[in-house]
Design goal:
This protein has about 230 residues and is mainly α. Helix content is about 65%, strand content about 0%.
Length: about 230
C-alpha cells in the first residue's frame, strides 16, 4: 500500500498576517493587519514589503519541510518580513530594494531553517537572528552616516511626551509617528493586553532613563529613546 504523505500546510492571508504579527511576538492575524496599517500609514512600500517578505519566507518553509503548525503560526514569516523592511529602508535605490526584498526574505528563511535544529537542542529559538545574519551580509556595504542631533532640543510637554512614546512603539516595526504607534498598541492589545501594557511601560521607562541621562532632540521626538524598552 502507498504510504500517505502529510499534506503541506496552506499559506493563506491569515498565515501571512500572523507572520507580520510575530514581529511583535503575537501569532494573531488581526495584530498583523493592524501592523500592516501602521506601516502603510508610514509608507505603502513598507506594508507591501512586509507582506511579500512574510509570503516568501513562509513558502520557503513549506518547500523545506518545516513544521506545519510553525508555518501557520507565522514563525517563519516574520524574519522574512523584517528583512524585507530593512531592505526597503536602507537599500541605496528603489530598484535595489525591489531586487533585495525577495532575496533577503528567502535568505532569512533558509538561515532560520539551518539554525532551528541546533538551537532546539538547547531549547532555544532563532527569534530575529536570521534577519540580522542576512542583513549583516549587505547593509554594511551601503550604510551611510547620519548627522548627529546633539544640539537639537525638544519641548518636554505632555503632548510631546505622549507622541514620543507612541512613536517609540511605532519604531519597533520600522513605522513612524504617533498614529502608527497607536495602531501597534491596538494590535498588541487585540492579542494580549498584558503585552500592550508591558510594551508601553517599557517605552516609558526607557525614555525617562535616557532623557534623565541627557538625551533629547530629534531622537526623543522620533521615539528612538523608547524603542528598545518597548521591545524588551
Amino acid at each position: 500500500m502507498p504510504v500517505a504523505r502529510p499534506a503541506s500546510p496552506s499559506i493563506d492571508l491569515r498565515t501571512l498576517l500572523r507572520g507580520v504579527g510575530q514581529m511583535v511576538l503575537q501569532a494573531n492575524a488581526v495584530t498583523g493587519a493592524l501592523l500592516l496599517a501602521a506601516l502603510a500609514l508610514t509608507d505603502l512600500r513598507l506594508a507591501s514589503a512586509a507582506l511579500v517578505g512574510s509570503a516568501a519566507a513562509s513558502m520557503v518553509a513549506v518547500l523545506t519541510g518545516s513544521e506545519p503548525r510553525d508555518i501557520e503560526q507565522g514563525l517563519h514569516g516574520f524574519n522574512g518580513a523584517l528583512a524585507a523592511l530593512i531592505a526597503v529602508l536602507f537599500a541605496p535605490s528603489s530598484l535595489a530594494a525591489i531586487a533585495l526584498v525577495p532575496v533577503v526574505s528567502i535568505g532569512a528563511a533558509l538561515v532560520q531553517r539551518a539554525m532551528r535544529v541546533p538551537l532546539a537542542r538547547w531549547r532555544q529559538c532563532p527569534y530575529s537572528s536570521p534577519c540580522l545574519v542576512v542583513t549583516a551580509l549587505w547593509l554594511p556595504f551601503v550604510a551611510s552616516q547620519h548627522p548627529s542631533d546633539a544640539a537639537t532640543t525638544a519641548p518636554l510637554t505632555l503632548p510631546a511626551v505622549a507622541d514620543a512614546l507612541l512613536s517609540g512603539l511605532a519604531q519597533t516595526t520600522f513605522a513612524q509617528g504617533p498614529w502608527a504607534g497607536m495602531l501597534i498598541v491596538a494590535g498588541l492589545a487585540v492579542a494580549s493586553r498584558r503585552a500592550a501594557a508591558f510594551a508601553l511601560g517599557g517605552a516609558i521607562v526607557s525614555t525617562v532613563l535616557l532623557v534623565a541621562s541627557g538625551a533629547n532632540g530629534t531622537s526623543f521626538a522620533d521615539g528612538l529613546l523608547g524603542i528598545n524598552g518597548a521591545l524588551a
